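## retry 2 of 3
previous attempt timed out at serialization; input unchanged, resubmitting
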Amino acid sequence: MSFGKNHRVMDSRRRWLALIVLCLGTLMIVLDTTIVNVALPSIRDDLGFSETSLAWVVNAYVLTYGGFLLLGGRLGDLLGARRVFLVGLCLFTFSSLACGIADSQTFLVTARAVQGVGGAVVSSVSLSLMLNLFTEQGERAKAMGLFGFVAAGGGSVGVLAGGLLTGAFDWHWIFLVNLPVGVLVLGLSLFLLPGGRGEGDFRHLDFAGAITVTGALLVAVYAIVNGNSAGWTSARTLGLLGVAAALLAAFLVIESRVRAPLVPLNFFKLRNLTTASSAGILWSAGMFAWFFLSALYLQIGLGYRPLLVGLAFLPSNAIMMAFSIGLSAKVVMRFGTRIPLALGLLLTSLGLVLFARAPVGGSFVRDVLPSMILLGIGAGLSLNPIMLAAMSEVPQDESGLASGVVNTAFMMGGALGLAVLASIAASRSSSLQAGGLGETAALVSGYHAAFVVGAMFTLAAAILGAVFVREIVASAPHLHLPHHDHQHAGEPELEGATD
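## retry succeeded, writing output
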C-alpha cells in the first residue's frame, strides 16, 4: 500500500500523535545545533582544542547536516519516508552516544560529523511525513504552525539546556541527553508513523552530486580554518581551495548531465530562490558566528558560568519564538516580504555592531542585552520572509526540493561564515598578544573583529533583499504561511511591484 493511501485511513487523533512524534524528533535535531555552544569552552579545556580547531565541533555537524539534506530527502522518496526517518534517527542517537563518551578531539569531531548525517536524514523526511499526514489546507496550516514553533523554540531550549547540563554535570551530558529522547521517538514512530514503499528508481539516485558538493565544502572550510597557521598564500591553503573549486565544478557538470539531479540547475534561474538563498548564506554566516563567539565572550570576557550564558541568550530566543508563532506572518501580510526581510537583516547587522563594542568585564544590561534584543527582532523578522520569497516562484510539485536547496544554503553559509570569522578572531587575537596585550583582552578584541565582519555579511544580505527580491502574493496556491492558521475574509493580500 502506498504512503498516500496509508495516511488517509489514519484517524485524526493518531495523525496528531504522529505529528507530536515528528516534532520531538525535530526538537532533538534543532536542539543539538545550539546546545553545544555554551559548552564549547569546557570542551576546549578538556580535550585541548585550539581557538580555530574548536570551530570543528560545530562545523563537522553543520557541514554534513547541510550536505546530506537533499540526499536524505531523495532517499525518502525512493525508499519510503518512515524507513529513512527510522534509519536517520538510529544513526543520530548512536552518534550522540559516541559524542557523549568521546575522549579525544578526533573522536568527538568524527562523531559529530556522523551525527550531522543522521540529523539531516531525520530533518529532510520529517517535513515530507508531516505534509503527507495533513493534506487538508486548514489542518496543514495548523500542523506547520506547531512544527515551526518547535523548530524556533529549539534554539532557546538548546542554549538553556546546554547551560544547565554543563553547569550541573559536564559537557558530555549535552550529547547523552539525546539517548532517552531518541529511544522514545524511535519506539513511538514504529506504532504511529505510517509505512509504505517509496517510489522511484534507486539506480538514478545522485550519489555523485551529494559526494562532490559535500566534499567541496568540507575541503574549503578546512582550508579556511587552517589558513592562519598554514599561511593564506601557502601552497597548502591555495591547493586545498583549488581542490574545493574542482569538486564544485565537478558537481555542476554532474548536475547538468544526470537523469535525476540532486539540484536541477534551472532552479538557479528563479530570481527569488537565488536571491533568498544568497541572502540566507550571508545571514547564517553572521548568525552562526554570533552564537559561537558570543558564548565564548560571555564566559571569557564576562566570566559567566555556563548556566548564566544559557540564560543570557533567552531574550533573543524568546523574541525569535514570538515572531515564529505568528508575529512574522502578520507583518508579512501587512507589508509584504521585501520590507520586513531587509529591515530584519538591517537590525541583525546593527545588533552585531553593538556586540563589537562589548568590553572585558562589561555590564549585561548595557553591553549585551541591547544586542540580544536587536538580534532577536532582526532574526525573527527576516527568517520567514526569506523562506516565503524563496518558495514564491517554485511550482508546488517542486517545493520540497526548493526547501532543501534553501536549508542547505543556510547550513553551508553558517559553516563557511563560522570558519572565516573564527579565523579572523584568532588572527586578530594572536597579533595583539604578540604585541603585548593580555590574553583575555586579546581574545575579546578578536571577537570584536569577527562581529564587525559578521555585521558586514548581514548588511550585504539586507541590500540583496531590498534590491533584488520580487514581491509575492500571499494567497498563491502553493504558499502556506507556516504560522498562520487561516486567512480571514477581507484580510489584505500582499501587493507590490513584481519587477
